Amino acid sequence: MRPHQSGPKAALSRIGRAKLSLRQLTYFLATANHESVLRASETLNVSSASISTAIAQIEEFLQTQLFIRRHARGLVLTSAGQDLAAHARNILLHAREIEAVAQRGPFRAVGRINVGCLATIAPYLIPLVLRDLQEKQSYAGNWVMTE
Q1: How far is CA 23 from CA 6, 73, 79, 131, 147, in A?
Q2: Cβ-contact 138, 104 below 8 angstroms
Q3: I need a labelling partner for 66 at 20 to 30 A (CA). Which of 37, 58, 88, 97 fits?
Q4: Burial of 78 (0-12, 13-18, 19+ CB in 10 A)
Q5: Angle at 45 between CA 51 and CA 72, to 5 degrees
């Protein structure tokens, strides 16, 4: 692990090469919750090496130690690890919320929709467009036709 660099430039350089993934955060949190790489790997159905690698990558990125190994008590979070655990929980919660929204169905247009068309083809095209909007987007807005 490289010595910790501080200051805005160091933080920006780490952000520019951010490679943290939701998987790494999941592995980290499981390890923190179980206080054991082995138990985390069993819970997540992955190898202990995968868990250890993910934690090492996070530590390298953050340039700080996240766990202290205590033989009798297993792994214990450092203060930096405790901070990361709180943020990781929120990030993973928000990721689950995004997945839930996406599973509910297609995103819908919200607000006013303006449709313009040449007067010569409007009688043929506009009814098709409006029907499509009503069927696919469940749009039940007010229709105003002008010439």
Answers
A1: 27, 25, 22, 43, 56
A2: no
A3: 97
A4: middle
A5: 55
pLDDT the model gives residue 25: 95
Cα gap 63→4, rounded to integer Å: 6
Higher pLDDT residue, 134 or 6?
134
H/E segment holding residue 3: none
CA atoms within 13 A on the CB side of 142: 1
Is 77 strand, coil or helix? Answer: strand
Mapping DSSP to helix (H, G, I), strand (E, B) and coil, where does residue 72 land? coil
pLDDT band at residue 71 using 50, 70 and 90 as cut-offs: confident
pLDDT digits (tens, 9 = 90+) for 11-54: 555 555 567 899 999 999 999 999 999 999 999 999 999 999 99
The three-state secondary structure class of 38 is helix
